[in-house]
Amino acid sequence: MGFLSAMDTLYFVCAAVGGSVLVVQTLLLMLGMGHDVDVDGGVHVHDVHDAGDGFFKFLSLKTLVAFLTFFGLAGLAAQRAGWGSLPTLATALGAGAVSVLVVGWLMSGFAKLQSRGNVDLTNAVGAEARVYLRIPAESRGVGKVHVEVQGRRVECKARTRGAEIPTGATVTVVAASSQDTVEVMLG
Question: Does the pLDDT of residue 85 top 60, yes or no?
């Protein structure tokens, strides 16, 4: 009985914490702040989807919150239905995993819907930008920056020819190397 009550508590805590964060995320999104409040340090859903293939492209704060919420809710429901501890745990893990895949797929679809409009990144040359996904050294990869262009805050890929630039650094745009990538340098 002690194991069941401990698991009951685990499911309840997961559902409560995940559900609370989900409500806060939804409210922030409705207030127009949802695109900037994923994970402090700069990992946003669209960053993760650009990171590669496989399961890791689905990891984000939104998918982790979905896992917690549905893991907890499914576990509580199965416990209340009188299922055994193993079927309950399997159901909770399955519900959590499915929610990660569904939310990840939805976020991937939303990221593809974003439009850049008529922003010309050559207009960003000379502007200051803020790094939110580190930029690898010597153009060995891309990071991400936010920069004001044509009166809008734009997210774009960024490269540097110099040393690695950490998240949070302020950089200067020195060139637009493609329609979605800029070259930056510290300072």
Answer: yes
Query: Which residue, among 161, 163, 159, 165, has the nearest Cα to 177 in the 3D structure?
Result: 159
Reading the block at residue 156, the tokens are 């774009």
* Nearest of 158, 152, 91, 111 to residue 131 by alpha carbon: 158
Cβ atoms 107, 60 nearer than 8 A:
yes
Window from 17-21, 37-41, 109-113, 181-185 with minimum mean pLDDT: 37-41
Q: Is 175 helix (H, G, I), strand (E, B) or coil?
A: strand
Query: How many residues belong to the chain?
Result: 187
Give the separation between CA 184 and CA 88, rounded to whole angstroms: 52
Q: Which two tokens stand for residue 63?
A: 């998918």
How many angstroms separate the CA atoms of 183 and 82, rounded?
59
Distance CA 109, CA 16 (A): 28
